Each structure stands twice: as C-alpha cells, then as structure tokens.
From TrEMBL:
<feature type="disulfide bond">
    <location>
        <begin position="123"/>
        <end position="132"/>
    </location>
</feature>
<dbReference type="InterPro" id="IPR001314">
    <property type="entry name" value="Peptidase_S1A"/>
</dbReference>
<dbReference type="InterPro" id="IPR018114">
    <property type="entry name" value="TRYPSIN_HIS"/>
</dbReference>
<dbReference type="Pfam" id="PF12661">
    <property type="entry name" value="hEGF"/>
</dbReference>
<feature type="signal peptide">
    <location>
        <begin position="1"/>
        <end position="28"/>
    </location>
</feature>
<dbReference type="Pfam" id="PF14670">
    <property type="entry name" value="FXa_inhibition"/>
</dbReference>
<feature type="domain" description="EGF-like">
    <location>
        <begin position="97"/>
        <end position="133"/>
    </location>
</feature>
<dbReference type="GO" id="GO:0006508">
    <property type="term" value="P:proteolysis"/>
</dbReference>
<dbReference type="GO" id="GO:0005509">
    <property type="term" value="F:calcium ion binding"/>
</dbReference>
<keyword id="KW-1015">Disulfide bond</keyword>
<keyword id="KW-0865">Zymogen</keyword>
<dbReference type="InterPro" id="IPR009003">
    <property type="entry name" value="Peptidase_S1_PA"/>
</dbReference>
<keyword id="KW-0732">Signal</keyword>
<dbReference type="GO" id="GO:0005615">
    <property type="term" value="C:extracellular space"/>
</dbReference>
<dbReference type="GO" id="GO:0004252">
    <property type="term" value="F:serine-type endopeptidase activity"/>
</dbReference>
<dbReference type="InterPro" id="IPR043504">
    <property type="entry name" value="Peptidase_S1_PA_chymotrypsin"/>
</dbReference>
<dbReference type="InterPro" id="IPR017857">
    <property type="entry name" value="Coagulation_fac-like_Gla_dom"/>
</dbReference>
Amino acid sequence: MTAMESKAQRATLRYLLLFLCWISVSLGTHGATVFLRRPEASGVLTHRTRRANSLFEELKLPDLERECLEEKCSYEEAQEIFTVPENLNDFWKSYAEEDACKCSPCQNGATCLDHVNSYTCICPSGFEGKDCGTADQSSLSCLYNNGGCEHFCNEGPGSLLQCSCAPSYYLAEDNSTCVPAVPFPCGRVVGSFNPRIVKGDVCPKGECPWQAMLEHNGLYICGGIILDTRWVLTAAHCVWRTRATDLRVTLGEHIRLLDEGTEQVKKVAQFFVHPSYNLSSADGDLALLRLDSAMVPGPFALPACLPPRDFAGARWRRCGAPRNTWFLTGVVSWGKGCAQSGFYGIYTRVSSYLPWIHATVTGV
C-alpha cells in the first residue's frame, strides 16, 4: 500500500468519525436553542480567520503549496508529496538549506554564488581569497589598506612599497608595524580609549592627552595641541596682539575648575605667528608657543603626531588615526560653538604649514 493510499484511507475514517459525531451532537441537542442573536453571529463571522490548516485539511490529498509553501513542512510531510526519492532529495536540499550568500560574505564588490552548505566568491580584479578580502600583491598599493603599513606608506621605484614610522617609533622586523621607542610616544593614548569628539561632546579624562589649555591673564581663551615637550600649536587669533608674559599653558587638564593632580602649568617664553596670518580672512591662522620649561610626558599629557605632508593632505582621508596612532591634520580657526550640528567649522590645514612648523621648532 502506498503512502498516498494510506493517507486517503485515514482521511476517509476521519470523515466518517466527524460525521458520526455531528449526528450525535444534533440528536443530543434536540429541543435546545442553537441560534445566536444577530450581533453575536456577525461577530463570529467577522473575526474568523481563514487558515490553510483548517478543520478538514487532513481530508485533502497532499499538496505542495498547502503543505510546504503556505506553511513550514517536515521531511515526513514532503515524503507524502514526492513519492520518487530523487525528486524528494532535490526538493529538500533547496527547501531546507538557507542561502549562504544571504549575509553577504564576499568583500570588495565580489559576486556570491550559493551552494549547499557553502558559497563561492567571484573576485573582481586585484583581489583574491575565499571572501575576496586579500589584495593581489601584484596590484597592491598604498591606496589599499595603507599598503599594510601601520603609519606611513611610500611607493618606491618599481611600485615597491616601503613603510616608515612617526618620530618616537621604530619599524619592527616585519617592516610594517611601528613600535614605541619611548614610554609615552606621540599620538598613542594610554588605555583603550576612543579620543574623538563629535558635536562638542566632552572628551573623557585621558582620552585627549595632547590637548592644552591657553589662558591670558588668568582667563581661558583657547585650546592648543602639544607637539613635543616644549612646543604647543594653537590658532593665531588666540595670541594676536598679546604678550608672551601674559600667557599661560596648562597641560593634563580635564576639568578647568578642579585640581585633579594631573595638571602641568607652564609659562610661555615665546610665541610665533605664521607670517601669512590675516586677521580679516583668517588665512594662516596658526601660532607656535614655546614653553619656558619642558613638560613631563605621561598618560594625561603627551604630544600628537605630525604627519608627512602627503599623508595629511591627500592620501589619508579617514577621520582619526591609522591603527591607534593619532595625527594632527587640522586646527580650528573659527565657527559657531564647538562642532555644533548644522554649522560649519573652519579648520586650518596643518599639512600646508608643516615646513614652517618644522623650521620654527628646530630653528629656536
């Protein structure tokens, strides 16, 4: 006896049983009221939801759409529909297996082909690997993943890639990693912080250790960036027409009105305004402050790194830092408030003034 015949017989028996039950109920309710009032009857009809697995569904012969498409079917239910084993296996593989490409495993614009319990990525030109996440070495350049370099990537003759590091770091034996050469190197936050300020949010203590506070005659006027133990970079308009003796710089500051024991207060011995500074247009809005004594680097006061010119100007456009080292690319010139949403902030591009910065710092 086939599965189809067996199910048909079971359906016939159920139908007979239901019919007998209906006769019994009808006879047992003789003389009773079986009608509902009109509002109640309408309510029953209105709220009734038609379902695929209705009362007499088991009386119907197996159907693919009803059993496996409208609802989730089991392997046994699929067996009743597909009597040929080959057809059953083909259907169940495509029905039970999830699309392996659904989570987009292929990278860099690759095409994903779904297989049973696996997938294949068709990589675009220049990429390879199972997920197309590895650049072909023959097409590798500094534009892709910074050439694998932690800090700086330079393309030499014959497209040969060379990695280099910022001051206070040295290149490791793998020729790509930069290792700190001092306890507190530039641009490296001590701890697992994320030192980025968005919409003027307060930078938590220790997350912006290169930040300096500039005061004029005891009043806060501007911020600054520590470049090394003796130099701080700020905007020219902050010190325009002032005297160095009236200025004071606080390093390691977090809450201005609270002494937290991490502050280092320094007098300004000298300051240098960029020669092209224009008060009206704000062009060249940079100034260098030379401290009267060297600061002591630590977790709450250390310099930001200065990048090479091509790094800051064109090649590296991601906001933040290459692999946990932070570089100075701009200094706030003017704007409304601090990074307020809906308002522009104007920054002086530091890369354009690197020759002047290096010449001033090394020439004094």
